[in-house]
């Protein structure tokens, strides 16, 4: 801690050209190793022989894939359900959030401030409160145990976030571009569809990726808005595994690895967009 | 930014109408999935819901009875205390470690960007996945933590991290800190980057180095970001349900029961939706206090 506090001064020295601070890299790697140990352990445990709670070896010297075989045979359907719900939530969230973000960024409509305020306030509402009320409504509407029901509910994680991220991006877009299109006689819809959306591509991707992750990670709505085995996202599958006494950790961990794939893939393949999302999330 | 000067009043009206159409789907969604639940929850908290309600549709009005029941139950004080400890412990740990790492990553060194972004992983994983992994790491008999502590000779027998009433909350807080560090790191790192180098250069001329420069330059400049991070952290931590349900399910003996998990329990295990709603509203009120703080903090951040 004390050395870290000297950082501002050190930074000046560090910025002198030609100096490579591999020592700091080593230290950073050490921090990373501690922080990512659980992820390593998840992968390691998933590769251990099945059905044993005996000492897991520290390194998977003889990787065993029976955990994955069990995970796939038991959870493939749940993974598919999660995928469908997440993709559905991305489509719904972007379809609702992009026009709203455009309106909030470009039109001085009356009530825009109120909408923005409502979005901020929505972040304070506990999920359990939403679930509590939705359960009774879903029960009346027949939306319990349904994929559309979960897509609608899961989008509550993504829509406010997507509106804020896309709006922040559109705020930085020159309004002259849109005005030019409007002068050329393009209607609102056409200006939005053929000018605004293509220009906002990056923010749409960022919002879409996060919306996907939010819906994929959803546990609360899956837990409260399903009562049967009919529709079962993988998060609920994992919860069921660990809800009882676990004697087969390798298949639980294999399922956990499979459920982590979207996060890992996005972090590696779409790092630019993830970075944009995390900083954008702060200003919300 | 209004489109070109409207010639007639009617055209302006039409224009406004079209502009509103872009917002309508979002407004409807927000009303249905945030507005309605809040209102419905208030209504439900004054009704007596039982398992039969879902067949008969009858939920008699009971005034404040639900509030009296939940607030006077002995479990409420436990939950309230746990919620406070969980929130304060998590925020404190996440913030201090996140800030230390953010300051560390201000240094220029090879691979800085890649390593910093890999640190985001714990935050991006589904919470229930993290819970499952930590359940296994914290396992009393063959968990990695106990084995490590045993190997280096700190402990002789397995520590019951998640099954002891005195340790479970500590363990849950620890896991939540791990999850929250990336968020704190990222936001605070962004805030630190905004502080102009010239300030430090001018400061060092005046003899402000090391701790002094942190105290007199970094901290005051970072204040707006700090308040946003802390209040957002509190608001998000108050709502946490996944991690606790996944790690301990509120146990052992309610030692990790928070207001959120107890509200879940009342509604979805005991089917007392009225009482669950009442407790949920208590949580909303606590969050709202922080929402006000947050809005004031973010307004100040915008002003500066």
Present the secondary structure layout.
The complex is a heterodimer of chains A (284) and B (304).
Chain A (H helix, E strand, L loop, with lengths): L1 H4 L1 H8 L7 H25 L19 H41 L5 H11 L4 H15 L5 H25 L3 H9 L4 H12 L1 H17 L2 H5 L9 H10 L5 H21 L1 H13 L1
Chain B lengths: L8 H36 L8 H4 L8 H8 L1 H31 L7 H7 L2 H4 L2 H11 L6 H8 L16 H27 L2 H9 L4 H30 L2 H6 L11 H10 L4 H31 L1
Radius of gyration of chain A, taken over Cα atoms and rounded to an integer in Å: 23 Å
Please name the CATH topology of chain B.
Answer: MetI-like fold
Class inferred from helices and paired strands of chain A: mainly alpha
How much of the sequence of chain A is in beta strands?
Answer: under 5%
Residue-averaged pLDDT of chain A: 84
Helix percent of chain A reads over 70%
CATH architecture of the domain at 77-240 and 258-283 in chain A: Orthogonal Bundle
Q: Assign an overall shape of chain B.
A: globular
Q: How are helices and strands ordered from N to C of chain B?
A: HHHHHHHHHHHHHH
In the predicted model, the low-confidence regions of chain B spanning at least 5 consecutive residues are none
- Proportion of β residues of chain B? under 5%
Mean pLDDT of chain B: 88
What overall geometry of chain A do the principal axes of the alpha carbons give? globular
Number of domains of chain B: 1
Instruction: Kindly provide the name of the CATH class of the domain at 77-240 and 258-283 in chain A.
Output: Mainly Alpha
Please, what is the CATH homologous superfamily of chain B? MetI-like
The biggest sheet of chain A amounts to: none
Largest sheet of chain B, in brief, is:
none
CATH superfamily of the domain at 77-240 and 258-283 in chain A: MetI-like
